[in-house]
Amino acid sequence: MKSQDIRQKFLDFFESKKHSIVPSAPMVVKNDPTLMFVNSGMAPFKEYFLGNAQPKNNRIADTQKCLRVSGKHNDLEEVGYDTYHHTLFEMLGNWSFGDYFKKEAIAWAWELLTEVYGVNKDILYVTVFEGNDEDGIPMDQEAYNFWKEIIPEDRILMGNKKDNFWEMGEQGPCGPCSEIHVDIRTDEEKAKVEGKSLVNMDHPQVVEIWNLVFMQYNRKANGSLENLPAKHIDTGMGFERLCMVLQDVKSNYDTDVFTPIIREIETITDKNYGKNNEVDIAIRVISDHVRAVAFSIADGQLPSNTGAGYVIRRILRRAVRYGFTFLNKKEPFIYRLVDVLSKKMGKAFPELKSQKQLIENVIKEEEASFLRTLDQGLVLLNGIVEQTKGDTVSGEKAFELYDTYGFPIDLTALILSEKGLKLDEEGFNAELQKQKNRSRAASEMSTDDWTILVDDAEQEFIGYDALEANVKITRYRKVTSKKDGDMYQLVFNLTPFYAEGGGQVGDKGYLKDTHGDVVYILDTKKENNVIIHFAKNLPDHLTETFKAVVDAKQRQRTEANHTATHLLHQALREVLGDHVEQKGSAVHSKYLRFDFSHFSKLTTEQLRDVENFVNARIDGKLPLEENRNVPMEQAIANGAMALFGEKYGDTVRTIRFGQSMELCGGTHVKNTADIWHFKIRSESAIASGIRRIEAITSDAVKDFYFDTNRAYFEIRDLLNNAKDPVKAVADLKDENNELKKQIETLLKDKAKNIKGDLKNEMTEINGIQFLAKQLDLDASGMKDLCFELGSEYNNLFLLFAAENDGKALLSCYISKELVAEKNLNAGQVVRELGKYIQGGGGGQPFFATAGGKNPDGIKEALEKSENYIE
Ligand code: ATP
Ligand code: MG
């Protein structure tokens, strides 16, 4: 069965069981402080499990792009070495939000595997949670009983807390799980060792394919468990592993998900897969990593130096490194795999197709730049090796190479071993640990449990319509971190505060109680769909009604910038073309920033056209047309621009100004006239194929014009109130150039004269042309003169001195021939004569300089110089 059909059959099956089939959410998570990448199928549905939102259908199924390279799930180091862990993989999942539970989840999983896919029952094992006394959680007897109905009891294995108890995080929903494992070894091998004993033992052909999680508890901050009011099902099946089973192969990399990419790598590198272990590892690494990187870029996450972007950069660099070391590829080639990947997966993930060109460009650029780093690193490493005494290279030095220059440590170790040297790994690890401790200490944070003031409170956001409201605090908690100290997070029953999201900053403002006490709201953010207000302290009268007031000025300015961002997006597509896609934005009160795909620098005319386009729409006084409850599909059909970062939801909000229409949750001006004016401040490249525009609107433009205007008058003042300051400055520049030219000629003439005079003053002593003299020149003038005279003689000894700004300078020149014959050294000369001018210096044997603070010593230094040639 082809992988495409396998995926489709899964979705069809659960559709027949009344599930809504939804598209994969973006893999890169925006606006969730607790997660960088979706690492399991349930992540996009967290808010449903936490009860913060209600799904339209309480049964959902999908295939979700997952990435396991950081945080709780990190499989990166396994990838390439084993045959069944990937960085990016698809997780097929079915969910019940308070609807069906263990019985159906188990029965359906079994039906799908054995009846729809036709998996042989004899290769399947299942696990059940054995219970844990410490935690006081009983064995999952319920699941055991359901399994017993369909599978022989000796194929049901007991699993411990590590394997069979799932938790969302340190706090929150959790519960026992049942895993389904396959044994795809040959009959011969099976006869030797029983499959049962290999489950959960990291055997490459006895692997877990599906995990059924039964969420029935909630873990509190103090570690205790309570029963969840509504119980949920969360299942995840590894798509690539399922393909391995159904395509009857022994490795995920032998399925049609990977073979086309591997064939392409073979062609490009002229290596064969399956002949040599190291080459095979490298090919697996690269075929895996190119998928992770391509999907991330398609999701809008470019490689960068921080956060999620840095994780992506590291994945790509790992691939480059394996290609460099084991496939001998010293030039970019991974980008060339994007073509086959997008052909193969583009149907299920259209973003790979539409963004192909960008993905290729970005990967190529990253590859090239990392290959340069590797080159430099090799040079630095050679330097380190040369300085190394004994056979062990210092861990500290290796760490510096790794930390400062991004040179991979395993490559360092490999190169050293090829040179017969050892790496002080302990020393390296100690440095690494120190660095980790430093960054952990900086990010350490503790979060208290919520204190609930109003039970079962719903939260309403009214900030599109109001900037003030009477509110009640429904819950609060304290969060302590090194960075911010103690902070309080407050949740209200209703709020006019906009939470940071869609690039727009969170609102600031204050709460005021009836006694007149005020608590400032410093920021507003969203976590799992709950709007959280940040304050430095708690109000005294927590249970009272407060007046919540948003800082209106900041909000207005932010809104002007947000609407301008939409108009800018439209303008760029109009002026540059439809290939322009938004790649990120930041909407602040003071400015806006917009990142987009485009391949060359914008010309002055294009920038002016873009500005004019936006300003024409501001002048056009276009009213805001807002629609808060549009089904997503309908909005897209109506031509709304869907941005990355959006995931499946029941309804979306559309924002229209004239012909600009976008899906957007942010706040906007009521009419484009409120923006007053739009001005681009800068345009630059932030990555290959990605440009950034920074712009300002409204008050900031007024400030900008005010400042430039003031500067203009100051300049005019300096120009004696010239009528035409532009012309006056141009004249000044011309005049200045003319004067520079004159000075140059004069200096040249002077030098010529000096040279002639000096030649006459030289004396010949012991076959050496000698001159010691004070000159009226600066250091570089003396140097030029030394070298010019030097080119005319091969037996020259010069000592020049000068006084500059109260300091003394010495320059000594000795012909190379003399250096060799008479064992003279200019460096030594200036060092020794330097003491007369109370200074020091050095240089090369044929030319050296010294500086000192005692010009009175010049005379003596000059006199003493003759000693060297006598
Ligand atoms: P394993 O122990 O094999 O790493 P897991 O316990 O981490 O698996 P879950 O978190 O339960 O796996 O994820 C559900 C399913 O997703 C697994 O049964 C497996 O089929 C698949 N899966 C998990 N991690 C990976 C990965 N890195 N690459 C490919 N598939 C994976
Ligand atoms: Mg795992």
Task: Sum up the structure in keywords.
870 residues; alpha+beta; BirA Bifunctional Protein, domain 2; 6 domains; 9-stranded mixed sheet; 6-stranded antiparallel beta barrel; 25 helices; 36 strands; globular; binds adenosine-5'-triphosphate; binds magnesium ion; ATP-binding; tRNA_SAD; ligase
Would you write up a description of this structure?
The chain has about 850 residues and is α+β, with helices and mostly antiparallel strands. The chain has six domains: about 260 residues, BirA Bifunctional Protein, domain 2 (2-Layer Sandwich); about 120 residues; about 55 residues, no CATH class; about 100 residues, Elongation Factor Tu (Ef-tu), domain 3; about 150 residues, Threonyl-tRNA Synthetase, Chain A, domain 2 (2-Layer Sandwich), CATH 3.30.980; about 130 residues, Diaminopimelate Epimerase, Chain A, domain 1 (Roll). Helices cover about 40% and strands about 25% of the residues. It has 25 helices and 36 strands. The strands form eight sheets. Strands 1, 2, 5, 6, 7, 8, 9, 10 and 11 form a nine-stranded mixed beta sheet that branches. Strands 17-18-22-21-20-23 form a six-stranded antiparallel barrel. A hairpin with a 3-residue loop joins strand 17 and strand 18. Helix 9 packs across helix 13. The radius of gyration is 36 Å and the shape is globular. The termini are far apart. Bound molecules: adenosine-5'-triphosphate and magnesium ion (MG). The site of adenosine-5'-triphosphate has 16 residues, from strand 5, strand 10, strand 11 and helix 7. Its EC number is 6.1.1.7. One of its GO terms (cellular component) is cytoplasm. Keywords: Aminoacyl-tRNA synthetase, ATP-binding, Cytoplasm, Ligase, Metal-binding, Nucleotide-binding, Protein biosynthesis, RNA-binding, tRNA-binding, Zinc. Pfam families: DHHA1, tRNA-synt_2c, tRNA_SAD. It catalyses: tRNA(Ala) + L-alanine + ATP = L-alanyl-tRNA(Ala) + AMP + diphosphate.
